[in-house]
Amino acid sequence: MSEHRSALSGRTYRRLDTASKLGGLALVAGALEVGPTTAAGVTLVVIGATFATTTVFIDNS
């Protein structure tokens, strides 16, 4: 199997990074509305935190 890694331009990386951070923030805000101690709230927090840190693992060159 060959490993294929696509590199993003600096501009595209910044846009994707900003969009994922805002999306993650929106999910965490939704969790606060639902209630962070409920199962749905905890799920939204975990998904939001994961989504907000996703672009850290994309190769930027």
TrEMBL record:
Domain DUF8120: 2-60
One family name in Pfam for this protein: DUF8120
Name this polypeptide is given: DUF8120 domain-containing protein
Originating species: Halorhabdus utahensis (strain DSM 12940 / JCM 11049 / AX-2)
